[in-house]
Amino acid sequence: MPASPAVAHAPAARSPIKVLVADDSAVVRGLVSRWLGEAGHEVVATAPNGRAAVDALARCSPDVVLLDIEMPELDGIQALPLILAKQPGVQVVMMSTLTQRNADVSLRCLSLGAVDYIPKPESNRGVTTSDGFRNDLIERIRVFGTARARRRTALAPAEVPSAASHPAAAPVSRLSGAVTLRPRPRSVAAPRALLIGSSTGGPRAVGEVLEKIGAPTLRRLPVLIVQHMPPVFTAVFAEHLSARVGLPAAEGKADERVQPGRIYVAPGGRHMRLAGTAAEPVIRLDDGPPVNFCRPAVDVMFLDAATLFGGATLSVILTGMGSDGTAGARALVEAGGILLAQDEATSTVWGMPGSVAKAGLCHALLPLPEIGPALRSAIAERA
């Protein structure tokens, strides 16, 4: 997850977002409650464990639940399905320290219905002094609380979402306005790479897209992914993709040759670049400054791919906050490549895909379930 820009802490103009904070540390509960109050939100309950969080739901009806993974009596992954069953549609954001186990649990929680996760400093002192953690937390409460309020307004009383539904989704008719789609290029080159950019909500979306393309089709070309994630998480994310899709998947390594049938995930905290030739591309890792407040950044990989492959690319921008990927997408489509984007209704956050759509860079704007089949067809046709 990228470092976030500074967040203004002025009181919110609209009704405050209601938050339940579940963490076994009294220090964390107190600090988070204070920060959210200063940002204009309302902490309606705190809980020292998952059982207390589940019990508090009926009393406080929160918009967002901040749920720590490691808690006594009932931990985060045990409490999550109970919370979603008791209050369908509530936005659950997991909190966890940066360990391999917690990264694995956090990603499993996303597949169970959590909307996002926030890496938490390992110590209470780290929590106290980390402006990045504070800003990330406040920004995510704002984004997901707003999505929850919008969904409540958009849905008729009979249209109560199930716990298995995309928590931030809302009816298509209530969401994205008209966007101008880019006409398909007349001359179409066989693709040399599939490029994917994503952020908030991306781990679940990327997995679904690749699974629906299918391993037989994906063996024809390499898949290069920039998912905004911290170190440790990206390695575990790659392992999850490999198990789900049935192809080798790992973090990209410096000077590694890019080969068909393999999935390369940009390592957390480093830009993943491309060099070499179109016939023999290689990965370069870059510790340069963040781009669009992100490292890894989608723009960095997309811009290199446009130079290296020209029009021989298929690319997709999936759910995520911000506008990372727009500059790179422009370079790709101007070189003759094909770009798809996820629609607003199925995006957890329609920031990145919304940015490329509003810029008129998409050849297709599709709901998540249709993106994989569309890419599978495009790969087969162009091959």
UniProtKB/TrEMBL annotation:
CDD domains given in the database record: CheB_Rec, REC_CheB-like
Boundaries of every Response regulatory domain copy: 18-135
Keyword Nucleus (UniProt): no
InterPro entries named in the record: CheB-like, CheB_C, CheY-like_superfamily, Sig_transdc_resp-reg_Me-estase, Sig_transdc_resp-reg_receiver
Segments forming domain CheB-type methylesterase: 187-382
SUPFAM superfamilies listed in its UniProt record: CheY-like, Methylesterase CheB, C-terminal domain
Active site residues per record: S199, H228, D324
Domain of life the protein comes from: Bacteria
Subcellular location: Cytoplasm
Recorded catalytic activity of this chain's protein: L-glutaminyl-[protein] + H2O = L-glutamyl-[protein] + NH4(+); [protein]-L-glutamate 5-O-methyl ester + H2O = L-glutamyl-[protein] + methanol + H(+)
Pfam families: CheB_methylest, Response_reg
Catalytic activity, EC: 3.1.1.61, 3.5.1.44
Residues modified to 4-aspartylphosphate: D68
Family label: Belongs to the CheB family.
Protein name, as recorded: Protein-glutamate methylesterase/protein-glutamine glutaminase
Organism the protein comes from: Methylorubrum zatmanii
Lineage: Bacteria, Pseudomonadati, Pseudomonadota, Alphaproteobacteria, Hyphomicrobiales
Annotated gene: cheB
